[in-house]
Each structure stands twice: as C-alpha cells, then as structure tokens.
Amino acid sequence: MSDDLIQSVIEAVPDPMLHLGPSGEIARANTAATQMFGTWIVGRSHDAVIRQPGLLSRIEAMQAGEGASEGRFERSDQSGVTQFKVRLTSLVDTGLLLHFTDITHLREAEEMRRDFVANVSHELRTPLTAVLGFIETLRGPARNDPEAQARFLGIMEDEARRMNRLVSDLLSLSRVESEERVRPNEDVDLHAVLQGVIAALRPGAEDAGNSLVLECGDCLGDGTSRIWGDRDQVMQVFLNLCENAMKYGGPDKPVRIFMAREMGTGLLKGPVLRVDVTDEGEGIDSLHLPRLTERFYRIDTHRSREMGGTGLGLAIVKHIVNRHRGRLRITSEIGRGTTFSVQLPAI
Ligand code: ADP
Questions:
Q1: Measured in angstroms, how far is the CA atom of residue 244 from the centroid of ligand 1?
Q2: Atom 13 in ligand 1: which residue has the minimum CA distance?
Q3: Number of structural domains, the chain?
C-alpha cells in the first residue's frame, strides 16, 4: 500500500488510528488520533506515546509476526476515564495499523446492567427468604399452633404481595423504557386524568386521613387541558406521585394537586400544562434530589419497604415524562414538604 493511500484510508476513519512504521515509529496519525494524543507524536517511537504494558506487548507480538489481534487502552483527563478497544492489523513490510474504538459507554451499560440484576435479586431475595423461613416454621414448631399460623400466613401474604408489586413495577419500567422513543398520540384531557387519579386514591386517602385537593390556575378553561399522551401512562405518573405524597407526607396531612397552563421555558417551547403535587411531609435533603429518579434509590430503604415501596416509582415517572417530551422538577424544604412538578407540552 502506498504512503498516500495509507494516509487517505486512516483519514477516512472517524476513530483514532495510528500507523506504526517497520521500526516502530509512529509514521502517521489521523486527525482523531492527533486530537487525542497531540500532533507531536508523529515521528516518535510508539512506546513514548502508548505507555501501557498490555498494548505494548500486543504490538511487540505483532512485530514478531503474530496475526491480527486486539488490545485495550485507557486514557484519563479532567472529564474522566475513556476506555478503548484497539484493533491491530499488520501491513506486510509497512508496519502496523492501530485502530482505537471508544468502548466507555459499552462498559458503563454493562455495569448498569450488572448493578440492576444485583439490585433486583437482592429485592426479591429478602421477601423470599422470609417466606421460606415461615414455611419451615409452619411445618415445624408452629404445626399445632393456629394463632401463630394465622399470623405467619398474614406476613407471608404481605411478602408475596411485595414481590408481586416489584414484578409489576419491573414490567412497567421495561415497557416504558422500550417505548421511550415512540411519541404518544392519544388526545388526553389531563384534568380528567387527575380527577380519575383522585377518585382511585380517595378511599385509601380517607383511611389515612389524607385529603387530596385538586386546584386549577385561572387560565385553565374548557378544552385547555389537553395533551398528546398515553392515557394509562399519564395516569400512572400522577398515581405514583400522589401515592408518594400520601406515604411520605404522613397521615392526616393534605396533598395538594395544582394544575395550570403556562408558556414553557428552555427546551420546552410553546404552551405547557404544569401539575404540582405537593405534600406537607418532612421534606428531602437537597443532597438526594438529583438521584431520586434512579432505579432503587431510596432515602430510607427501611421506611420505603415498610410502606410497601419498590424504589421504582419515580424511575417509571421519569421515563414516562421523558417519553411525553416533558420535564420533572423536584423542590423540597426540610420541615415544610415537597413538590413534584411535571410540565407536559399542551395541545
Ligand atoms: P418507593 O417505592 O421507595 O416509594 P419511589 O421511586 O417512588 O420509590 O421513590 C424513591 C424514594 O424517593 C423513596 O424511597 C423516598 O425516599 C423518596 N420520596 C419519593 N417521594 C417522596 C416525597 N413525596 N417526600 C419525601 N420523599 C419522597
């Protein structure tokens, strides 16, 4: 291959590429490579630039006549660590080609998947261990104790319901994630959805002494509360937020749902519908706010579990709001309460 041809070929590749000459010097680097390493590298020996033993030994093996191979390369700067897969190809008599592919995002996705599986297993294992323990007790020490049997069966039912909730939330989350790029196209009246949410929650709210109040801003008239949406998902957003407000707001505390039509700001252009769900609970330390919508993130795991929480409710809310091209904001004041504010583009 002629020198010009090698240069044109490596220039056509958007990833960093280096051409090492027969004596190991960096004969050529494409633009992506000089942006990554600097222009000074051309003409230098490769081991002055690639100082990582794993990749250097791959290069050495190739120079000694081994066939095509792969190595790893890592770079760190202010923005963090970038990981590369490096493909090494031999050019007969003219050296080696090194092709760097950024695999950082693949590694991150792998890590997230691993964490997720570990979290799900942990969440399922706790109730399962309890159920198995009680089965053993019912077969053994409590065999002839009807009172204990009734109590243990009650606990087993609670644990089984918890697993059931977890599985339903996992299924909702995976459905919402898979549809996130599909624009919802039902003509949904948000005011009617909120009334539906309140009607569904009212019996439970009355038992806990929570009042659920829906208020509307002045400029909201007939037909002004419509969005392009997925009715069930929009309902799910406000069910989750109102249930949380009741759970974490505490018993005998009001939950206020305020709805208004306003002009969007920033990326949300045009008219939007804003719904604020406000409780009078203990409030949330600002430290936790950015992480609340992560899957399984809870401020107090024990309290969340006690109240039947799965740690997935807000992750589901975030994905649904994203799918609707909306925005979720959380503001909280310690000792006063929390507001979850959802903005959705209006029709
Ligand atoms: P969970 O099933 O634990 O309620 P969510 O995803 O709905 O899961 O919420 C995640 C965490 O956010 C909760 O465990 C709780 O710590 C916190 N949280 C959610 N809503 C509120 C609220 N209204 N007030 C205080 N904390 C809240």
A1: 6
A2: 298
A3: 3
What is the rounded average pLDDT of the residues 43-58? 93
Query: Buried b / exposed e across 76-110, counting CB within 10 Å, b at 16+?
Result: eeeeeebbbebbbebeeebbbbbbbebeeeeeeee
Q: Which of 310, 162, 322 is nearest to 240 (CA)?
A: 310
Ligand 1 geometric centre to CA of 118 (Å): 21
- Average pLDDT value for residue range 263-287: 93
Q: Could you tell me if 277 and 339 are in contact, meaning their C-beta atoms sit under 8 angstroms apart?
A: yes
CATH of the domain at 342: 3.30.565.10
Whether the CB of 279 sits within 6 Å of ligand 1: yes
Give residue 171's domain range.
104-178
Q: What angle do CA 124, 128, 132 make, to 5 degrees?
A: 170
Q: Tell whether ligand 1 has an atom less than 6 A from the beta carbon of residue 200.
A: no
Can you give the CATH number for the domain in which 133 is found?
1.10.287.130
| Average pLDDT score, the chain | 92
Residues paired with residue 187 on neighbouring β-strands, in sequence order? 228
